[in-house]
Specification:
Low-confidence stretches of chain B: 260-271
Number of strands of chain B: 8
Oligomer: heterodimer
Largest interface: A-B, 16 and 18 residues
Order of helices and strands of chain A: HHHEE
Mean pLDDT of chain A: 73
Strand content of chain A: 15-25%
Distance between the termini of chain B: 39 Å
Strand order of the largest sheet of chain B: 3-4-2-5-1-6-7-8
Bound molecules: adenosine-5'-triphosphate, magnesium ion
Helix content of chain B: 40-55%
Number of helices of chain B: 14
Order of helices and strands of chain B: EHEHHHEEHEHEHHEHHEHHHH
Helix content of chain A: 40-55%
Largest sheet of chain B: 8 strands, mixed
Chain lengths: 86, 271
């Protein structure tokens, strides 16, 4: 390597670091770290609330993964006579 | 109270077995009764790194399957009498281990030892799952390299969800052990720095083991660096990590050879 090449050389470690930070932010979300479950719960509830009045306390959300299969379980107790929310 | 420590990484070849052996020796030398268990069924190596390969008669699988008693399978180290080894089976496959069986063995070991160090196989499958399942604490072994850091992140997620402790809602204490570190390359910007890895993985650092020829020499001899070359850089890093594991607070420094001119000239003979 000549001197000029040496001076212009870009260190590779910062690239590694940045790639990892971006990748892991994504993987942590899809691998079901806390955060994703709450996000899903909030958004799904928002959609349901548009149509039915529900008690947020009576909602159970469970995200699990086993043997490469991920499952999202949402348990919502509907009011006896579900009425469209105003 | 016994502590079950899993040495894990996701990625293969990062230094789990080397670290299990070196730390096992260091803990045992400090007077703690210690057992190291090889969970790498089918590909056992811990016996070799500890120089006990010719003394394995019964192994973990035999005990789990009830074919041998624990006492028959434990191999007492000839050099450090507080250290024992429970080898993996070379001929069986990983399905030979059952969760109930491993639970029984760990329970029995908890009565006899202060430290139960579990050397995990690579991957995130059954073998790795069983090695971490009953752990109280975890050592996440990571090389300063993108794929290793990614896999470690995955392992951290599993430690927080798939261990008995996690399922019970108890705390799973995790420690980062960076191995095969080359301070000179990190300084040049060609290797991620310890700080980078720490920031990404966000678990406390327990030690930085430099990349060193001493490690290969030690495995050639069947005597971990902490035993065969205790004043070498990797050995000193392992010895300090063992002290931190035991609760001492010592600053983590990145070990480098401080070579004075004299040191450089006579380094080979002095070392
Ligand atoms: N600090 C180090 N410096 C130099 N070489 C090292 C260091 N640590 C480990 N090695 C070498 O790296 C190789 C892999 O180490 P080791 O077998 O401990 O990894 P492992 O994580 O147990 O692998 P596996 O996933 O296959 O079980 C070995 O050849 C070992 O000698
Ligand atoms: Mg190994």
């Amino acid at each position: 390597m000549n001197l000029l090449g040496f001076l212009q050389r870009k260190p590779s470690a910062p690239v590694a670091r940045e790639r990892l930070q971006i990748l892991l932010a994504h993987e942590r979300a899809t691998n079901g770290r806390p955060g994703l479950t709450n996000l899903l719960k909030d958004e799904i509830l928002a959609v349901i609330k548009k149509h039915v009045a529900i008690d947020p306390e009576k909602v159970q959300v469970k995200l699990d993964s086993q043997g490469g299969v991920s499952t999202l379980e949402i348990d919502i107790e509907m009011p006896a006579r579900a009425k469209p929310a105003a | 109270m016994a502590t079950v420590l899993v040495v894990t990484s996701g990625k293969g070849g990062v230094g789990k077995t080397t670290s299990t052996a070196a730390l096992g020796v260091a803990l045992a030398q400090a007077g703690q009764s210690t057992v190291v268990i090889d969970f790498d069924v089918g590909l056992r190596n811990l016996d070799l790194v500890l120089g006990a390969e010719r003394r394995v008669v019964f192994d973990l699988v035999n005990v789990v399957q009830g074919e041998a008693k624990l006492a028959q399978a434990l191999i007492r180290d000839k050099r450090v009498e507080t250290l024992s080894l429970l080898a993996a089976s070379q001929t069986r496959d990983k399905d030979a281990l059952t969760e109930d069986g491993v639970a029984r063995v760990i329970d029995e070991l908890r009565e006899k030892f202060d430290w139960i160090v579990c050397d995990s196989p690579a991957g995130i499958e059954k073998g790795a799952g069983l090695a971490m399942r009953f752990a109280d604490r975890a050592l996440v072994v990571t090389n300063p390299e993108v794929s290793s850091v990614r896999d470690s992140d995955r392992i951290v997620g599993l430690l927080d969800s798939k261990t008995l402790r996690a399922e019970r809602g108890e705390k799973m204490e995790k420690h980062l052990l960076v191995t095969r570190y080359d301070p000179a390359r990190a300084e040049r910007g060609d290797m991620m720095k310890v700080e980078d890895i720490l920031e990404i993985l966000a678990i406390p650092l327990i030690g930085v083991i430099p990349d060193s020829e001493e490690v290969l020499k030690a495995s050639n001899l069947g005597a971990p660096v902490t035993l065969s070359a205790p004043s070498s850089l990797p050995a000193r890093a392992y010895l300090e990590a063992a002290r931190r594991l035991r609760g001492e607070t010592i600053d983590v420094t990145v070990p480098t050879e401080k070579k004075s001119l004299i040191g450089r000239l006579f380094g080979r003979r002095v070392a």
